[in-house]
Design goal:
alpha+beta; eleven-stranded mixed sheet
Length: 224
């Protein structure tokens, strides 16, 4: 586990693809428990460690995850995520190059709970939620295009679904049309950066997670 930022109220870590943020029916150890153990050991805390889960990343996705270390921070961060007061930047390696090098995508997503999948439509329809994102092309390999994505809304599988809808499925994302899986079961979607006002000190927090050190990510990401 890589810690990207920590103070008394907030801890931000870099999640590896394949990790779950919060416990689920698989019974696998979630990232939240790993972070709790880290805090307990580092600060020699007796008893239970408080850690609030503020948001999640899909299991096959890597990148920045924010946790709250106090109930005050949790309440305020929950509200900030709810009102989109948090700026999130993603990197996605996609099949095919989009027709426009930079654009805003607007779709209406319908979630199928049984399939754990969302479907994108160009027009409003029953039970659909409006989804908006901005993307721009920032790199290439022989086979893939690297997009930087900014979310304007937060919907189920939004980036995966919307990019697939324009014919650019994310590398390894079989659920949304990629032709083959990645060797490690990941999809090539990375929560690259997060920016927000600290919930207590009100200072600007701006954190970047290093790109995965595998496959076509290598050598094309211009690490800062």
């Amino acid at each position: 586990m890589q810690v990207l930022y920590e103070d008394n109220h907030v801890i931000i870590v870099s999640k590896q693809a394949g990790e779950i943020v919060q416990g689920d029916k698989t019974g696998d150890t979630p990232l939240s428990e790993t972070v709790k153990s880290y805090i307990k050991e580092k600060y020699a805390k007796p008893g239970a460690v408080f850690l609030g889960v503020v948001h999640r990343l899909d299991r096959p996705v890597s990148g920045v995850v924010v946790f709250a270390r106090t109930s005050k921070a949790l309440t305020r961060l929950n509200e900030m995520f709810r009102t989109q007061a948090v700026q999130k930047t993603y990197w996605a390696l996609v099949q095919n190059e989009p027709r426009e090098p930079e654009a805003t995508l607007t779709h209406y997503l319908v979630r199928n709970e049984k399939q754990n999948k969302s479907y994108a439509y160009d027009h409003e329809r029953p039970n659909a939620k409006k989804a908006v994102l901005d993307y721009k092309v920032i790199g290439h390999t022989d086979r893939y295009t690297l997009l930087e994505v900014h979310l304007q809304t937060g919907r189920h599988h939004q980036i995966r679904c919307q990019l697939a809808a324009i014919g650019c499925p994310i590398r390894g994302d079989l659920k949304y049309g990629a032709p083959r899986s990645n060797p490690d079961g990941s999809i090539s979607l990375h929560a690259r950066r997060i920016r927000f006002e600290h919930p207590v000190s009100h200072l600007l927090i701006d954190v970047v997670a290093p790109a995965p050190d595998e496959g076509p990510w290598k050598g094309m990401t211009n690490e800062e």
